[in-house]
Amino acid sequence: MKTFLGEDFLLGSDAARRLYFDYAADEPIYDYHSHLPAAEIAHDRRFDNLTEIWLDGDHYKWRAMRTAGVDEALITGDTSHYERFRAFASVVPQCVGNPIYHWTHMELRRPLGIDGMLLSAATADDVWRRGRERLAAEDFGARGLLRQFGVRMVGTTDDPIDSLEAHAEMARDPKLEIAVLPTWRPDVLFKPERDDFVAWIEALGEAADVAISGYGALLEALGRRLDHFASRGCLSSDHGFDRLRFSPLHTAPEPLFARRLAGRRLEDAEAIALRSALAVWLGREYARRGWVMQLHIGAQRDNNSRMHERLGPSSGFDSIGDLPYAEPLAQFLDALEREGALPKTILYGLNPRDNEMLATMSGNFQGGAIPGKIQQGSAWWFNDQTDGIRRQLTSVAQMGLLSRFVGMLTDSRSFLSFSRHEYFRRILSDLIGGWIEAGEAPADYDLVGGIVRDICSRNTVAYFGLDGAA
């Protein structure tokens, strides 16, 4: 029987252990998609206690606490940090089988140094005290935590209207040895149905110093903001398409945008046509700049309307959607490919049903002498657990080239979440080690170990052009 979280955690063979310890464990982390606030890195935020760094904003933990019957006041309410931590600690023993149980104890062990102790109501006070002592140490601010995890690059997620002043501050800071790069995320632009759409367009115009009176002015403003992001080191865009729909570009977008700008609502087909035109225009711009385009597809958000009204979005009431999107995705990618304007693209699907579809869709649009130009992205959100990661890696391996995969990311708001790279690397090593043990891959560690090392870091560096970033 193995020890929980022992040295061989998730490593089921000698080959897996060799791959992990010799090729994966010490590779630097290039976390190209996260939701870490750039200002907290720029100002080297300090955390007083585990609730601040661990529970605030973590809807994974909130969902578990709700399922365990914890009162909402102890989850998102104004109760004390200590009371909220104790409430979570009491739930942790119930999380066996959920990745939260693994992540919680991995994060306690590294970087907090709290090892050999399982979090529960009985140990909560001791963990709380030791956690506060550790967080008070000199190297436990936001920057120190990144350094301890071996992070070389972090990609933040940023609205086009953001000034990116925090990124500018960091670019001028010689003491910061980590590249913190913005990612262009124009969510509101693709949701003309939102009540705040026109207000956001006005804010975009102010940020770009362009009076947006029509569609042409909108594109000018977007172009200026793209240039601004590029000047701050941006190498990537990101789009969250809960429902991906695409319309062949037969409808002129100019009158549609003018109608919405005047305060009128668009019909469903009109909104799709406007979004499609904007998506193609932006895709061209990404390709021209050499950026990566990331598409996160398939979340069904804010299902609990009462709690959404009370707490707002991203509060733990999202789930996996089940709408098909292979045809519109192909149409979108093909529209750019026909022009020779398809950028490097990463496709993330939230429904594991779509793994094989995305893996084969990626193969339709490879080319341009760019290795792995179109990627099936890493296991996302509800899939970033052992089974989900294995499923995603297997679909990439069997229907594409796992050797070209750009690897793991955190997609997180927590400075402790980089332990998920260790989690991923152990699963990756165990998967490929299992192939070696079964005679399905050669015990050629220069070959197979090199693939593991590439997936952990080097493919990411090459794909995003990060050679000089950190």
Write structural notes for this entry.
This protein is of the alpha/beta class and 470 residues long. The chain folds into 2 domains: 49-138, uronate isomerase, domain 2, chain A; 142-464, Metal-dependent hydrolases (TIM Barrel). Helices cover 47% and strands 8% of the residues. The strands form 3 sheets. It has a 4-stranded parallel sheet with strand order 4-5-8-9, covered by helices on one side. Helix 12 (253-261) crosses helix 13 (268-289). The longest helix has 22 residues, at 268-289. The two termini are 42 Å apart. The model has no long low-confidence stretch (mean pLDDT 97).
How are the elements arranged and paired?
Elements: H1 14-24, E1 29-31, H2 38-42, H3 50-55, H4 59-67, H5 81-91, H6 99-109, H7 124-135, H8 142-148, E2 151-155, H9 165-171, E3 179-181, H10 197-208, H11 215-231, E4 236-241, H12 253-261, H13 268-289, E5 292-297, E6 299-300, H14 305-311, E7 319-320, H15 326-338, E8 344-349, H16 355-364, E9 374-376, H17 386-399, H18 419-437, H19 445-464
Parallel strand pairs: 1-2, 2-3, 4-5, 5-8, 8-9
Antiparallel strand pairs: 6-7
